[in-house]
């Protein structure tokens, strides 16, 4: 079988972006991501090895995937991650290597990331208030995260802050976080809360959706302007004229961007997800460990891409027994 130079799914959407979870472990306990207790982390042997992940990336790169984002859990909890990052950075066809981190362990690795030419770092930060940080994350790590943010800005690495907006928790932080873009060339992305917390949706209706977030920003910055958004972007982006940085809103629960989705996910356990809201569509780890050749693996992957859900709502409807979304984001890959 001739492998394609560019993967196109059954809805005509190109797939060129892999979000690769390197671990299911995390050193925070953010309530919107996981319960405080009860998360059962898998033994290392049940996770993809670095060698297996490298093999997968090389195969996908040969089929047109050129952008990788490493996620977790918290990626830097995985031993020797920097060496693995350098390996991925060197794979032919991979033009972008990015990482999403909570910043607790990250600062020490910033020089190495600069040296390897990492494309960007997304820092998860839901508040600039130390007490609210403790309440949200259930861990007293605010100072480390803020030092990491300062170091990222100083390093010149393209940096975005990811804030999950939650009613009654941190909506008062929307504008203070936006103020960071006044003097710093960073992006702040506001994300609708999703039910991937290990327990399920906290409320029947989303109290703070993308429209309410935008209304808050417009009230604070009447001159805010919508700017051109890159193809396949999940965020709708804005600029306050006098600010150096940018603002973006990701309708992750409303799912307004599915029509141009170019991304797939691989969980740390080796399960392919062609949509955030599906339950996993292919056990790649099992195929690899059963001795599948690259050709057989590619055929299986292409078969999954050819049965991709049209959007997050269809993916959710197709879940076994139509069970509601309730898994922890740490087991999915952020």
From TrEMBL:
E.C. number: 4.1.99.22
Record's keyword terms, sorted: 4Fe-4S, GTP-binding, Iron, Iron-sulfur, Lyase, Metal-binding, Molybdenum cofactor biosynthesis, Nucleotide-binding, S-adenosyl-L-methionine
GO biological process: Mo-molybdopterin cofactor biosynthetic process
Enzyme category, top tier: lyase
Gene Ontology MF: a single term: cyclic pyranopterin monophosphate synthase activity
Transmembrane portions of the chain: none
Segments for region (Disordered): 313-334
PROSITE patterns, alphabetized: MOAA_NIFB_PQQE (PS01305), RADICAL_SAM (PS51918)
InterPro entries referenced in this protein's UniProt entry, alphabetically: Aldolase_TIM (IPR013785), Elp3/MiaA/NifB-like_rSAM (IPR006638), MoaA (IPR013483), MoaA-like (IPR040064), MoaA_NifB_PqqE_Fe-S-bd_CS (IPR000385), MoaA_twitch (IPR010505), MoCo_biosynth_MoaA/MoaC (IPR050105), rSAM (IPR007197)
Keyword Lyase in record: yes
Polar residues: bias regions: 323-334
Record Pfam families: Mob_synth_C, Radical_SAM
Catalytic function, reaction form: GTP + AH2 + S-adenosyl-L-methionine = (8S)-3',8-cyclo-7,8-dihydroguanosine 5'-triphosphate + 5'-deoxyadenosine + L-methionine + A + H(+)
Cofactor(s) required, per the database record: [4Fe-4S] cluster
Keyword GTP-binding applies: yes
Residues annotated as domain Radical SAM core: 10-233
Name of protein: GTP 3',8-cyclase
Source species: Microscilla marina ATCC 23134
